[in-house]
Amino acid sequence: TQAMRGSLELLPLWFLVLAAGGTGHTYRPSRRVCAVARAALGPTSESFAQRVYQPFLTTCDGHRACSTYRTIYRTAYRHGPVLAPARPRFACCPGWKRTGGLPGACATAICQPPCGNGGSCVWPGRCHCPAGWQGNTCHKDVDECSSGGAGCPQ
Question: For residue 10, is it left (φ>0), alpha (ψ between -120 and 50) or beta?
Fold first, then answer.
């Protein structure tokens, strides 16, 4: 019970650690995940203190009415297209695409042009060819008969 109470006392601390760190590690740049810098450009509103001169009547010497002014400040807003900082977005690096639902899961390579004749893309621009085919995109037929070996299907 003593150990259990100690564990329960640490529970709020764990929630604090999780809230601060969250799952951000999943979305950080890595070998196949790149940070894409972006900024939000659009109509923004910015507040500022605007000086206003306000006329008013007061009594001067001899109980006469005099006009004067006082300075007051009010909150005003400026509107305009201002470049506002935005959080970075994480996307798959060139040559990779998302696998599954997580943004950080960029495990599928992209081959352009695509692999042919049953080949599979194992790295961006690199195909793994089945028997009988070779080359960057598995489009070059291997001539098994030129070597004079057995298994010549041609």
Answer: alpha
